[in-house]
Design brief:
mitochondrion; mainly alpha
């Protein structure tokens, strides 16, 4: 069981990092899209 957790730990860490990065990218993209829409009436 300990070996399984040790093997899953890096996978979960990578998955968490990717999810956070993707979420941040989507939020930034939405902010940029809103700014573009406001700049171009």
């Amino acid at each position: 069981m300990t070996v399984l957790l040790a093997g899953l730990r890096p996978v979960l860490f990578i998955h968490y990092t990717l999810t956070k990065a993707i979420t941040r990218a989507l939020v930034m993209g939405e902010l940029f899209n809103q700014q573009d829409v406001e700049e171009d009436p």
